[in-house]
Each structure stands twice: as structure tokens, then as C-alpha cells.
Design brief:
Elements lengths: L2 H31 L5 H23 L7 H13 L2 H13 L3 H28 L1
């Protein structure tokens, strides 16, 4: 299997596990705390961000010994679990590179634009 097909397979496999894990966490957190606050989303975002930082650093240090871990866990599993982890890593890397303005802009744009986008999405349905 060529490298691109292997990576696609790893992303798909990791994504299946990440989506399932997200679903199970959601069920568990909602059963514990109810639906009054989005604790399930917060939980997967925090867990995903923690794992993203950990795996990223292991890959950077060459500690995993294989480049296959990133597509499996970093892209597939964490991509399905939460894209917030990628956003968090992007922002941290900008801060570490001394690009504080870009990091703050990234945070502000992602939060504001995504809130507006989700609102627009709801309006599109309500207006049709």
C-alpha cells in the first residue's frame, strides 16, 4: 500500500475510534451532570487538547519511532474527538514562535467567526 493510502487508512481508523470515544464521553458526562451546561463538549475539548500536546511533543522528539502515529492519533482520533485540539495547538505554536498578535487573532477569529457561522447555519434552516 502506498504512503498516501496508508495515511488515509490510519486517519479513517483513528477517526472511527475518536468519534466513538466522543459519543461515549458525551453519554457518560450527560448522565453525570445533565444537559444544563455543555460539560461533554468541554470535556472532549480538554481531553483532546491534552492528548494533542502530548502526542505532538512525542512526534517532535522522535519518541514514537514512526510517522504513522500522527495520522492515526493526531489527525484521525483527535480530529473526530475534537477539532478544538488542533486550534489549541495552532495557537500555542504561534505563541511559542513569539507571534502573540497572531495567536490572539487566531483565538478571536475562531471563536467569533465560528459562533457567527453556527448562528448563520441555524438561520439558514429557520429561513427556508
Amino acid at each position: 500500500m502506498n504512503n498516501i493510502m496508508l495515511n488515509i487508512s490510519l486517519v479513517a481508523c483513528g477517526g472511527a475510534f475518536g468519534a466513538t470515544f466522543r459519543y461515549l464521553i458525551g453519554i457518560g458526562i450527560i448522565s453525570l451532570f445533565g444537559k444544563g451546561f455543555p460539560f461533554a463538549t468541554l470535556t472532549v475539548n480538554v481531553i483532546g487538547s491534552l492528548i494533542m500536546g502530548y502526542i505532538f511533543q512525542l512526534v517532535q522528539q522522535g519518541a514514537l519511532g514512526s510517522s504513522n502515529w500522527w495520522p492515526l492519533i493526531g489527525v484521525g482520533f483527535l480530529g473526530a474527538l475534537t477539532t478544538f485540539s488542533s486550534f489549541s495547538l495552532d495557537s500555542l505554536l504561534l505563541i511559542q514562535q513569539g507571534e502573540l498578535f497572531k495567536a490572539l487573532l487566531n483565538v478571536a477569529l475562531n471563536v467569533v467567526v465560528c459562533l457567527l457561522a453556527v448562528y448563520l447555519g441555524t438561520l439558514l434552516v429557520l429561513k427556508s
